Amino acid sequence: MRIINLSENNSVLKHYIKEIRSVKIQKDSMRFRRNMERIGEIMAYEMSKTMRYKPEDVKTPLGVAHTEVIDEKLVISTILRAGLPFHQGFLSYFDAAENAFVSAYRKYKDALKFDIFIEYIASPNLDGKTLIITDPMLATGGSMELAYGALLTKGKPAHIHIATVIASQQAIDYVASHFPEAKTTIWAAAIDPELNEHSYIIPGIGDAGDLAFGEKL
Ligand SMILES: O=P(O)(O)OC[C@H]1O[C@H](OP(=O)(O)OP(=O)(O)O)[C@H](O)[C@@H]1O
Ligand SMILES: O=c1cc[nH]c(=O)[nH]1
Ligand SMILES: [Mg+2]
């Protein structure tokens, strides 16, 4: 399984990661959402370099240019609700992609223990397609695993890209051992060392859904 940590190289991506982490800057929810989207755009561009291409000739006003276009059927999926701005970043780059949505939420039994519930899925057929699952936070990896299980009821993808902004090292290890080794690639903008007792990523960013869309009851 390939694990690609985009923070291993310096780029402007680090500015956007810094801004979503900053306790001052992240309070501007419009900027937070736009930064999530920008990270999605950059990750989509990096991902596009690893895809299969096919030749395609295009007629210009003065002749014919030999070009290449992506030769994979892409489905961009996300886990509601925190994933929406990140998903939009991918969709801005992959014009022809189909889309899928899965809901997942933590229902706390007490301050520390929670179950994850999936109640909604809308997806095209996934047989033979490249499935990109976008979710900005990969904390325990539980939501990703359950969302993937739900998506598999819609077909068997040829390749799976797990795309995340901040992952814990624990979740990277969890996903690596629960997803098909030969056809999964994990993409992270940054990998953080630990989780706290509430299974939030440390240092992380806090609650991505609340930062993007406001606190929920
Ligand atoms: O790896 P895990 O331990 O499962 O945690 C990560 C999940 O937590 C966040 O969503 P959350 O449950 O906060 O829902 P929200 O998008 O509605 O805020 C995030 O977007 C992931 O889906
Ligand atoms: O750190 C975390 C963990 C789960 N969900 C979040 O939004 N942040
Ligand atoms: Mg949340």
TrEMBL record:
**EC number(s) given by UniProt:** 2.4.2.9
Pathway the protein contributes to: Pyrimidine metabolism; UMP biosynthesis via salvage pathway; UMP from uracil: step 1/1
Tell me the protein's name: Uracil phosphoribosyltransferase
- Per UniProt, residues of the Phosphoribosyltransferase domain are 10-214
What biological function has been recorded for the protein in this entry? Catalyzes the conversion of uracil and 5-phospho-alpha-D-ribose 1-diphosphate (PRPP) to UMP and diphosphate.
Name of the top EC class for this enzyme = transferase
Instruction: Name any cofactors this protein relies on.
Output: Mg(2+)
Which family does the entry's similarity section mention? Belongs to the UPRTase family.
Q: Which reaction does it catalyse?
A: UMP + diphosphate = 5-phospho-alpha-D-ribose 1-diphosphate + uracil
Organism, per UniProt?
A: Paludibacter propionicigenes (strain DSM 17365 / JCM 13257 / WB4)
Q: Matching SUPFAM superfamilies, A to Z?
A: PRTase-like (SSF53271)
**Superkingdom as given in the UniProt entry:** Bacteria
Q: Where is the signal peptide?
A: none
Keyword tags? Allosteric enzyme, Glycosyltransferase, GTP-binding, Nucleotide-binding, Transferase
Tell me the InterPro entries matching this sequence: PRTase-like, PRTase_dom
Recorded GO molecular functions are: GTP binding; uracil phosphoribosyltransferase activity
